[in-house]
Amino acid sequence: MNQHPDNPSGNRLPAGVEEAQLIDAVRASGYPLQSLVAQELALQFEVIEEWGYTDRTTKEHRTLDIYAFCQLGDGTGPVRPRLHLLVECKRSDLPFVFFPPGVQRVPWDFPEVVGVGRFSLNLGSNTTQDASPATFFCAAESPFVAAPRLAVTFTRAQRKGKEFDLSGEVPFNQVVMPLASAIEQMRQIFHGVNGTPIIVLSLCVMDAAMIVASGTTEAPVLRLEPWVRVVHQESVHEGNHWGRRNYAIDFVHREFLRRYVTDHAVPFANVLAARMVQYQQRHTKAQATRPKDLGWDAFVGT
Predict the structure, then answer these.
(1) With helix as H, strand as E and coil as C, how does 93-143 read?
(2) Across the chain, how many H-helices and E-strands are there?
(3) Nearest CA to 123 among 243, 289, 297, 296?
(4) Helix or strand run (H / E) with residue 90
(5) Cα(153)–Cα(100) distance, integer angstroms
(6) 139 pLDDT exceeds 90?
(7) Nearest to 44 by CA among 262, 252, 234, 228
(8) In the prediction, which pLDDT does 238 show?
(9) Predicted local confidence at residue 286, as pLDDT
(10) How far is CA 67 from CA 2, 37, 93, in A?
(11) What is the pLDDT of residue 39?
């Protein structure tokens, strides 16, 4: 084992502890992956490792692997959009398997945008409907929203004798629930804060084989893919009614991370940020309304 030049003689492995065993334990822990991901993101973002948040169910203090953020545009003017990444890192010698929905449906509230006012759509006949910022600014027009394969659930393969078993409980509890809690904390932090729109993307960077399983029970089809978007939906009680909330998480293979950030996520965020600035230059009302059926170019041209 390597040693620091000033390492004292008493700082050594105890009897019965093999270096190879420790190396295997470190490799399985995921922390080396977290460091590598942080270094990669630091090329374009400010990075905070072990970012603290409060679990929305247990109210316990927990930490997210990585929290990263960057300024979009030139950072001047009354509206200064930013891109924030909430990141978990997972490593496994066995593959993760993703299951796509029978009907592809892009979440209406993806991506999450906080730090903005309320938006609505004009349905005609003096009727309006609340709209997410993503819907209002026509995020679904971007290839980034439609590019990855969607999945409604995912599992991690586990050995069961000579066979494999698929378990969804561990990855759900270790990835989806922490990121959902982190998103809710972002909502609380920036609630009522206008002028700094924050586009929030949730990521799970994988150092493991990522497989999408489709086809039929009789003839399943397996395909390796480096980017899969898992959408988890929950019912929430908001005021006097029940609503739906989507948590969309981009699972990205470690070796695809740079392309994901540079070619997909940041360009998309820049386009969405430019739309926010463009709209603010024309309208300053806190309650913003646009016609429901117009695309962005048609809307801003009116």
Answers:
(1) CCCEEEECCCCCCCCCCCCEEECCCCEEEEEECCEEEEECHHHHCCHHHCH
(2) 9, 16
(3) 289
(4) strand 82-91
(5) 7
(6) yes
(7) 262
(8) 67
(9) 52
(10) 31, 11, 25
(11) 96
d(CA 227, CA 211): 10
User: Distance between CA 85 and CA 65 in Å, rounded?
Assistant: 11
Report helix, strand or coil for 59: coil
DSSP 126: T
For residue 202, which of 98, 110, 101, 97 has the smallest C-alpha distance? 110
Which residue, among 29, 41, 76, 15, has the nearest Cα to 261 in the 3D structure?
41
Total-model pTM? 0.87
For 267-297, what is each residue's pLDDT tens digit? Answer: 999 999 999 988 887 765 555 888 888 889 8
Place of tokens 């679904």: 140
Place of tokens 């009354």: 78
- Mean pLDDT for 53-66 is 91
Q: How far apart are CA 284 and CA 269, in angstroms?
A: 22
- ∠ CA 67-69-73, nearest 5°, is 170
Domain parsing of the chain, residue ranges: 20-300
Residue 75 three-state SS: coil
Predicted local confidence at residue 229, as pLDDT: 96
- Measured between alpha carbons, how far is 86 from 58 in angstroms, rounded to an integer? 20
Q: How far apart are CA 224 and CA 253, in angstroms?
A: 10
Quick count: other Cβ atoms within 10 Å of Cβ 139? 25
Instruction: Work out whether strand 149-151 and strand 227-238 pair parallel, antiparallel, or are unpaired.
Output: parallel
